Amino acid sequence: METIKIAHLYPDLLNLYGDRGNLICLQKRLNWYGFACHIIPVELGEDIDFSTLDMVFMGGGSDREQNLVYRDLFRQADALWVEIEEGMPLLAICGSYQLLGRYYESIDGKMMYGLSFFDFYTEGEEKRLIGNIILETEVTGEKKTVVGFENHGGRTYFNDDTLKPFGKVLRGYGNNGQDKTEGISYKNLIGTYLHGPLLPKNPAIADFFIQAILKRKGLELKGELDDRIENFAHEQVKRMLLGT
Amino acid sequence: MLRKIIAIMLGKIVWFILKILGRQATVLPGRVARLIDRDILKKLSRNISEEIIVITGTNGKTTTSNMLAGILKEKGYRIVHNQAGANMLTGITTAFIKETDIKGRKKHHYAILETDEANVPLLLNEVKPRMILITNFFRDQLDRYGELDHTVRLIKESIKGKSLELVLNADDPMVAHLASDTGATAWYYGFSDTDYDSLESRESREGRYCIFCGHEISYRRYHYAQLGSFFCPKCGYHNPEPHFTGYDLSLQGGISLRINDLKITSSYQGFYNAYNILAAVAAAKLLGIENEVIEQAIKKYLPPSGRMETFIINGKPAVLVLVKNPTGLNQTLHTLQYDKRSKDVFFALNDNAADGRDVSWIWDADVEMINDINYKMVICSGKRSGDIAVRMKYAGVDSERIIIRTLLKEGIEEALRSEGETAYILSTYTALFACRDILQELQTSASAGEKGSKSLSAV
Ligand SMILES: [Zn+2]
């Protein structure tokens, strides 16, 4: 059986609001598709050989933790970027998403630098943006709704208008509560504010990552999973938010 | 003397620090104090001016101690009472440390010490209770490999030769014999025939064997689980005559019953709690508390919401449990692992403000424990029935065994219909009261239906 290796970066620091559910989801779905899945926790100070990985996952964390993570990841950023460019799937939630941009300026003026993979920045504000959220995304090649829960003080703005958001906000706040964009998508990378956790209720996005993982390994995804329960949960939130 | 003061001081400091940190301060202060002064519990327990009461048993000891504490407080007494869960020596020491002054001289009238069965002999080495109350000894929730018989023997030995009173459940063959060969004074409480008795036991019998001769115990009637009117066909062991008898029991919308010349009403639920009330009242009467004070205190005493209330619907027990965060959910799943009966699990997940709008906490709990609880069906309900269903599926529950019924009533009915021996009704805060109402209503109409058919068959 093929084994898929997913790195969980800094699980002790970055794990807010059930984000580990994303890994539970990927692992189970890979198993159901007939693959083994090995989750590799990576702690501060550990050297990572990204070329041996099939995917990277980073959850949300507080400001303090983000700073620690930045310093550790910065020394390995180039190697990570090479893999991203070559199509390695990466999912970064909330604080980790902000880390992919240039900087985060907190409400009291403190600057926290990001990895600058993309030309966007984040500014902290007093009022946190909290609530259920629904987006429309086309990352899978067709229009799909995505549901989740957001809880962030930062507002994220793109400097580079060629950057592609993860989705368009139908209900909720998204990147900044103004321009209806949410998150970022680049090749097989998704950065997003969505907790919930994201993947279990959005099996299309989970499978987007799984497809990308397998394609990169020259493997094929065979068969279909019975997603009735996942879709029910998705529709339940969708109905609640859109009232349809 | 100095050692005692240092022990108390350090214990209090630890208690205070834990409180500031927002942590549970139920065990550690006692542990620290005992390290400094091994006899600290012995010394502090001498400050009890009236009596020390020890309450033990497999089930119901927390509710029984809380009720007895409520009665004594109603009367105006100052008491020392250890917290549920902290019922080993360290937890009991903590309770004394917390209540005493720095010199360790402050007097309290009563101490109510709730403790695990196995802890009783150790406790008796350090404190001198006037009274030990035993609620019941349930075998199926303890170990099946003779652990219980061993514990019972140890308790019996530790009682021998001490001048104390035993308050015993006369309806439990595992408990009623406890005074024999010990020389202790025994007081018994038990029920006369009730409308809720059955002639057949619903529970799969694991065989209740006579403590004296080993023959299988026979029952004339069952009140609740193994509690009932029993006798040994071989040696004649049978219920002792109770000094405190519960009769005229009604479980409709709460509990009402008469105990000797007392009239008791309570908003607790279930036969099981009727036993706890009976036990607490028996102890209070023995301590000389007046009827009016007891009646008043029990009436005022409300069950803490969601603390494992049991309802019986068409003979199937349904246990209501509040779950509101990962820790609580983990604890609940742990408890379910100890109950070996097959069970249907109902889970109502709401996301109203009082529940927390964000339901992602269910992913921070180790729901994977569900695989060890002998479940039949998992019924997912509430406004976020889909979320809990997905969580269950990814925890390893087979999709075939997940039923989604968003409406609470439909979900609860489904759980009661399913084939598990018992149902656990888990609910977040804002669905809890609706769930309780539904269970209460189903219990009432079910028992009305049963009575109806009984009288029909009598015709
Ligand atoms: Zn016998």
TrEMBL record, chain A:
SUPFAM superfamilies: Class I glutamine amidotransferase-like
GO terms under biological process: cell wall organization; cobalamin biosynthetic process; peptidoglycan biosynthetic process; regulation of cell shape
Domain (CobB/CobQ-like glutamine amidotransferase): residue spans on this chain: 5-202
Cited Pfam families: GATase_3 (PF07685)
Entry EC no(s): 6.3.5.13, 3.5.1.2
Reaction(s) catalysed by this chain's protein: beta-D-GlcNAc-(1->4)-Mur2Ac(oyl-L-Ala-gamma-D-Glu-L-Lys-D-Ala-D-Ala)-di-trans,octa-cis-undecaprenyl diphosphate + L-glutamine + ATP + H2O = beta-D-GlcNAc-(1->4)-Mur2Ac(oyl-L-Ala-D-isoglutaminyl-L-Lys-D-Ala-D-Ala)-di-trans,octa-cis-undecaprenyl diphosphate + L-glutamate + ADP + phosphate + H(+); L-glutamine + H2O = L-glutamate + NH4(+)
Keywords: Cell shape, Cell wall biogenesis/degradation, Glutamine amidotransferase, Hydrolase, Ligase, Peptidoglycan synthesis
Positions bound to substrate: R128
A molecular function GO annotation: glutaminase activity
Catalytic center residues: C94, H195
Pathway stated in the Swiss-Prot or TrEMBL entry: Cell wall biogenesis; peptidoglycan biosynthesis
Subunit structure, as described in the record: Forms a heterodimer with MurT.
Function of the protein: The lipid II isoglutaminyl synthase complex catalyzes the formation of alpha-D-isoglutamine in the cell wall lipid II stem peptide. The GatD subunit catalyzes the hydrolysis of glutamine to glutamate and ammonia. The resulting ammonia molecule is channeled to the active site of MurT.
Family per record: Belongs to the CobB/CobQ family. GatD subfamily.
Full protein name: Lipid II isoglutaminyl synthase (glutamine-hydrolyzing) subunit GatD
Record organism: Thermosyntropha lipolytica DSM 11003
Upper classification of the organism: Bacteria, Bacillati, Bacillota, Clostridia, Eubacteriales
Originating gene: gatD
TrEMBL record, chain B:
Gene: murT
UniProt binding sites for Zn(2+): C210, C213, C232, C235
Keyword tags: ATP-binding, Cell shape, Cell wall biogenesis/degradation, Ligase, Metal-binding, Nucleotide-binding, Peptidoglycan synthesis, Zinc
Cited PANTHER family: LIPID II ISOGLUTAMINYL SYNTHASE (GLUTAMINE-HYDROLYZING) SUBUNIT MURT, MUR LIGASE FAMILY MEMBER
Residue ranges of domain Mur ligase central in the record: 55-208
EC primary class: ligase
Keyword Nucleotide-binding applies: yes
Functional summary from the UniProt entry: The lipid II isoglutaminyl synthase complex catalyzes the formation of alpha-D-isoglutamine in the cell wall lipid II stem peptide. The MurT subunit catalyzes the ATP-dependent amidation of D-glutamate residue of lipid II, converting it to an isoglutamine residue.
Active-site residues per Swiss-Prot or TrEMBL entry: D358
EC number(s) from the headed UniProt entry: 6.3.5.13
Name used for this protein in its record: Lipid II isoglutaminyl synthase (glutamine-hydrolyzing) subunit MurT
Span of domain Lipid II isoglutaminyl synthase (glutamine-hydrolyzing) subunit MurT C-terminal: 322-432
Reaction catalyzed: beta-D-GlcNAc-(1->4)-Mur2Ac(oyl-L-Ala-gamma-D-O-P-Glu-L-Lys-D-Ala-D-Ala)-di-trans,octa-cis-undecaprenyl diphosphate + NH4(+) = beta-D-GlcNAc-(1->4)-Mur2Ac(oyl-L-Ala-D-isoglutaminyl-L-Lys-D-Ala-D-Ala)-di-trans,octa-cis-undecaprenyl diphosphate + phosphate + H(+); beta-D-GlcNAc-(1->4)-Mur2Ac(oyl-L-Ala-gamma-D-Glu-L-Lys-D-Ala-D-Ala)-di-trans,octa-cis-undecaprenyl diphosphate + ATP = beta-D-GlcNAc-(1->4)-Mur2Ac(oyl-L-Ala-gamma-D-O-P-Glu-L-Lys-D-Ala-D-Ala)-di-trans,octa-cis-undecaprenyl diphosphate + ADP; beta-D-GlcNAc-(1->4)-Mur2Ac(oyl-L-Ala-gamma-D-Glu-L-Lys-D-Ala-D-Ala)-di-trans,octa-cis-undecaprenyl diphosphate + L-glutamine + ATP + H2O = beta-D-GlcNAc-(1->4)-Mur2Ac(oyl-L-Ala-D-isoglutaminyl-L-Lys-D-Ala-D-Ala)-di-trans,octa-cis-undecaprenyl diphosphate + L-glutamate + ADP + phosphate + H(+)
GO MF terms held by the record: ATP binding; carbon-nitrogen ligase activity on lipid II; tetrahydrofolylpolyglutamate synthase activity; zinc ion binding
Self-association and partners: Forms a heterodimer with GatD.
GO aspect biological process, one term: cell wall organization
Known pathway: Cell wall biogenesis; peptidoglycan biosynthesis
Native organism: Thermosyntropha lipolytica DSM 11003
Keyword set includes Repressor: no
InterPro entries: Folylpolyglutamate_synth_CS, Lipid_II_synth_MurT, Mur-like_cat_sf, Mur_ligase_cen, MurT_C
Family in the record: Belongs to the MurCDEF family. MurT subfamily.
